[in-house]
Write a structure and sequence with these properties.
One of its GO terms (molecular function) is DNA-binding transcription factor activity. The chain is of the alpha/beta class and about 350 residues long. About 45% of the residues lie in helices and about 15% in strands. The chain has three domains: about 10-60, 434 Repressor (Amino-terminal Domain), CATH 1.10.260; about 65-155 and about 285-320, 3-Layer(aba) Sandwich (Rossmann fold), CATH 3.40.50; about 160-285, Response regulator (Rossmann fold, 3-Layer(aba) Sandwich). A six-stranded mixed beta sheet has the order 7-6-8-9-10-12, sandwiched between helices. It has a four-stranded parallel beta sheet with strand order 2-1-3-4, sandwiched between helices. A two-stranded parallel sheet has the order 5-11.
Length: about 350
């Protein structure tokens, strides 16, 4: 009938197969012959048949939906990750729902409880949960983390290595007392950057002053800038670009020159890092690639059922930390250290 939406039975009749066979052809084609599957697909295309989400869920046990959980959806650091996840999921016909936990650990766990039954899996970017809690959730549902490995498994951006590159850059410019404006206490990446910077500072003959913690937001930059000025440093490494932007704002308000009076380095190379004046020296990370790799790994986990006693990696995919390299982008906010008074 004109205007009537074709059903799975219509597809089955057109292909000359049973309804159950048509369903398998469209959801689990590996369980029937390729000739039959091709015939069913052709009939579905000719009729304009589009399976409903609820129908797919009932027939395959899957929703075709993945949750992408972020600590702060307004942070441009996550834009590239979202694009990467989205582009990879689209290839396999998946979509994602975006969850913003607003830097709240309880909100992050509440989100996982809510999506456990409504999504096929989850990608957590820079999660703030404790290691043991994350490991429990990884046993309970297909889950991949970015910038926070779980049981030796996940996608990790080498920002600690990038922070060391930034410190080496400042040391080469004659800086001997440098501050690190740290990020949230719950940040795995922040802890590992501090751990990498301390021995690097000793090797380079640089005195490292750790400031903070600070919220990874522009508004927190004023306090970080004031603390850096009070610490008598000539350079400051900021946890992320947003914090660095706020530091630059405050230094300008105080009438200080960058990089003449104080050199500033950010992290992430987000949109706008090259637009501020002077342009921000920062650590660039392959964010879109990280999102694609995380989605790729999650889809593989979804397609391989986990054992009942499964730990991360017991779904047939060996646990591994996929370490993505970072690099320093030198712009105008770093220069030679100011002369000693």
């Amino acid at each position: 009938m004109p205007g009537t939406r074709p059903t799975l039975r219509d597809v089955a009749d057109a292909a000359g197969v049973a309804v159950s066979t048509a369903s398998r052809a469209l959801t689990r084609p590996g369980r029937i012959t390729e000739d039959t599957a091709a015939r069913v697909r052709a009939a579905a295309e000719e009729l304009g048949y589009v399976p409903s989400a609820s129908g797919r869920a009932l027939s395959s046990g899957r929703t075709g939906t993945v949750a992408l959980v972020l600590p702060d959806v307004t942070n441009p650091f996550f834009f590239g990750i979202v694009r990467g996840v989205q582009s990879r999921l689209r290839v396999d016909g998946y979509t994602h729902v975006l969850v913003d936990t607003e830097e709240s650990v309880p909100a992050e766990e509440r989100a996982l409880r809510m999506i456990r039954s409504s999504a096929d899996g989850a990608i957590l970017a820079a999660p703030r949960l404790e290691d043991s809690t994350l490991a429990r959730w990884a046993r309970d549902m297909p889950l991949v983390t970015i910038n926070r490995p779980v049981d030796g498994d996940g996608i990790v951006l080498d920002t600690p290595g990038g922070a060391v590159q930034a410190l080496e850059h400042l040391a080469s410019l004659g800086h001997r007392r440098v501050a690190y404006a740290s990020g949230p206490r719950t940040s795995w990446s922040d802890r590992h950057r501090r751990a990498a910077l301390r021995p690097a500072a000793r090797r380079l003959g640089v005195e490292l002053v750790v400031l903070g913690p600070y919220a990874p937001q522009r508004e927190a930059g004023a306090a970080a800038a004031d603390a850096a000025c009070g610490a008598g440093v000539t350079g400051v490494l900021a946890f992320n670009d947003l914090l660095a932007f706020g530091i630059l704002d405050r230094l300008t308000a105080r009438g200080l020159d960058v990089p003449g009076d104080l050199s500033v380095v950010g992290c992430d190379d987000v949109f706008g890092a090259d637009l501020v004046r002077p342009g921000l020296t920062t650590v660039a990370a392959p964010l879109e690639r990280a999102g694609q790799r995380a989605a790729d790994l999650l889809l593989a986990r979804i397609d391989r059922p986990r054992r009942l006693d499964g730990r991360a990696g017991d779904d047939g995919i060996p646990p591994t930390v996929d370490l993505l390299p970072t690099h320093l982008v030198v712009r105008g906010t770093t220069g030679p250290a100011r002369p000693a008074p």
